[in-house]
Amino acid sequence: MKYTVSLNGQEFNLRVTGFLEIQTDSGARQTIDLVPLDANRYSAIIGTKSYVFELFTENGEKFLVYKNHTLPLLIEDEHDRLVSHMKQVNKDHPTGADVKSPMPGLISRILVSEGEIVKKGQAVLVLEAMKMENEVKSPLAGQVSRIAVSEKQNVEKNDFLLRIG
């Protein structure tokens, strides 16, 4: 299994193959003999040097303490890294939905305004077609970012009505 460790702004790629081996981005490899000393303290022998350090978690974040220096520590396996990447992509490219007219008709009432937060399935407008009133509902939860129609306006099937997100 491959892991990525970020420590004090520096990133290391680790691969566990029966023993622990560090491979940096530059390609340098080093073997580590890691021995737990007690609940939070460890001894790591890297090459010919020995290091004693402590690991602890506070408020869901991991830290490494070495020689009275506390450093933030992030350890991710390949799956964690992919999930983190996808969360960032979704944050950078928020999703939304265009609400289109399901049929030709007349917009009889607009039930929301731009900037309003709506829930999935919430009625956003009423479309009158063949003397029947039909509620058009939001396909997802989000904020109404644009309303492209007005009351008493005729629309055709698939006309853009409003945008959520």
Task: Give an overview in words.
The two termini are 38 Å apart. The protein folds into two domains: 2-92, Glycoprotein, Type 4 Pilin (2-Layer Sandwich); 97-164, Beta Barrel (OB fold (Dihydrolipoamide Acetyltransferase, E2P)). The chain has 165 residues and is mainly β. The protein has one helix at residues 78-92, and strands spanning 2-7, 10-16, 20-24, 29-36, 41-46, 49-58, 61-66, 69-77, 97-100, 105-110, 117-118, 123-129, 132-137, 142-147, 154-155, 160-164. A hairpin with a 2-residue loop joins strand 7 and strand 8 (69-77). The strands form three sheets. An eight-stranded antiparallel barrel has the order 1-2-3-4-5-6-7-8. A four-stranded antiparallel β-sheet has the order 9-16-14-11, with no helix packed on it. It has a four-stranded antiparallel β-sheet with strand order 13-12-10-15, with no helix packed on it.
